[in-house]
TrEMBL record:
Residues 1-23 form the signal peptide. Keywords: Signal. Residues 335-375 are annotated as: Disordered. This is Lipoprotein. PROSITE patterns: PROKAR_LIPOPROTEIN (PS51257). Residues 358-367 have a biased composition (Pro residues).
Amino acid sequence: MMRMSKSMMLGAALVLAACGKDAAVDDQEYAEATPDLSGTALEINSQAAGEEGAALIAEGFGVNQGELNGTGPEFLENARVQVKALNTALKDAITPIVELVNAGGAEASPGDVLVYGPTDRANATYKFTIKKVTAQRFVWKLEARTLGSSDDAAYKVVAAGGLTKGVLAHRGRGTIAINLDNLKAVAPAITGQGKLMASFAHTAGNDKVLSYRLDGFTPNPANHAPVTGAFVGHRRMPSGISRVRVFGPYNLKNTATPAKENVFASIRWIPGTGGRADIYAAGGDIAADKYFIGSTCWDAQEMEKWRILRQCTKGQPLSECTTVAGSELGTRAACPGADLGGEINPPSGNPDDATPLPDAPTEPEPVPGDVTPEL
């Protein structure tokens, strides 16, 4: 049997010591495949978009993106309620990912997998896992467990997704899905409930197209009725022109009581010019055989220039609709530009309508049916 010299033994010890050290993991390509808010958030006013990059921890969306002051056009303000609820849920899911990745210290696991955490936040302990599937495709999951727990079996998946990388970091084609019910199970103080699933696609010019599926989703059932259905939107660059289609219950002006109607809104925004909203409404104070359609336009400062609301009878042509008393404001000719002053073009009133909006630069992949990790 061969005997090792002292020098050989020392060399072997140094090798073993080096192997035992926590070597830093080069995680740049993994970090660039994580989601960020500006790549996944719906935008009505593209000038109020979130910041770019893996270091994003947004502190809101700016006054135009969701801070309602009650002075803007009714149809726009109420669409923003839905946009803000969705974007807040995205922010709350993405922020722990950003914090975990920015903290570094990823642990490499077999199969091109990196694990970040666990780390405690105010409401739960989080762990983020991301896997490299191909040179361009990455999939990930965010898990959480109750603060103070040391049981790995107690983790629940609170978000999952994937990205096929494009030209820019955090851009490409991918999905993100959030399970607020699982998060509430480990952090009971959380007010949100339901699920939010989305697919997105970005172009080389940083256009984005988004499709969301909401399942009983609400940030707080005490003041925001749960929504089940589809939201869609896109933003074109470099113009910043954006479109969204959302829906939710609220009390329309010019109706008899505070009962909430189900209002579907299609919004267009042209930076420096203004915007337009078209709506379809039913339920609430609207008779079962009737529905309302309406339009409004506003200038770059969001001053309403024209508004109309019309009552229609189901099964009858739109030419038979009548104007709702007291609903008219201004004239269509006052709208800032021909694109914003056309005839009423209401959305379908179908909560599951995920049809891309006109002028969408591309089409995302199908929206996930549930919050199910691919790893």
